Amino acid sequence: MLFRLLGEVTAEREDGGIVRLGGPQNRALLAILLLSAGRPVSVDRLIDLLWDEPPATARNRVQGLVAELRRAGVALATRAPGYAVATSPGQVDLFRFRACVERARIAEPPTAVALLIEALNWWRGPALACVDLPVLAQSLEEERLHALESRIALELGLGRHGAVVPELAALTSEHPTRESLHQLLMLAQYRCGRSADALETYRRLSHRLAAEYGISSGPELRRLQESILRG
């Protein structure tokens, strides 16, 4: 069985058939257990993550969700103080993504780029889509962005400055206050001979940070701006 967390929470049988997991809470409970990588998750922790205000029947409801997932064919084990999913890393898209990222860390740049592309291809949309686990989903999104930034930084190191500018322009529009993406865009623009564009990128970010959060850009970004000004 292949479990997918990087997009909608789904499960597929070896023949490609889709497993009927049930409703959003079934999928949320499964996602929590899969994210624990085989370690048991306590019933109390499951209740805290599944409900903002747990009902009096929360423990019985967790038992019911576990039973429904077991009937669907998911190998859930009862392990004190709660439950765990019996899987191998190769059965979960998230762990395949992470394995590619780890291999990229020690690879030569061209191979590392290919591995990060392979890693990012496991994503089919926002992580944990269609379940209400915002904190866990945001943590996974950070992993995706870090992998994406690593890939782009490697591309810059290989001299592919012009190729990444359009992608970075789109990414900074999606994440208008993320300094690391703006720094990569400024560097790409500068190396393409577009110093004025790089400085405008810095100006826009600085204005937004000041307007929305009352803060200035970080020291790395300021040093890059100063370097561009010096030419």
How far the N terminus sits from the C terminus, by CA atoms, comes to 56 Å
Low-confidence runs of at least 5 consecutive residues:
none
Tally of DSSP helical segments: 10
Please give the number of β-strands.
5
Strand order of the largest sheet: 3-5-4
The CATH superfamily of the largest domain appears as: Tetratricopeptide repeat domain
Q: What gross morphology would you assign?
A: elongated
Account of the 3D structure:
By secondary structure, the protein is mainly α. It contains ten helices and five strands; from the N terminus they run E-E-H-E-H-H-E-E-H-H-H-H-H-H-H.
Lay out the secondary structure.
Layout: E1 2-4, E2 10-12, H1 24-35, E3 41-42, H2 43-50, H3 58-71, E4 76-79, E5 82-85, H4 93-105, H5 109-120, H6 134-157, H7 161-174, H8 179-191, H9 195-213, H10 219-230
Antiparallel strand pairs: 1-2, 3-5, 4-5
Descriptive labels:
single chain; 231 residues; mainly alpha; Arc Repressor Mutant, subunit A; Serine Threonine Protein Phosphatase 5, Tetratricopeptide repeat; 2 domains; three-stranded antiparallel sheet; two-stranded antiparallel sheet; 10 helices; 61% helix; 7% strand; transcription
Task: Briefly summarize what is shown.
This protein is mainly α. Helix content is 61%, strand content 7%. The strands form two sheets. It has a three-stranded antiparallel β-sheet.
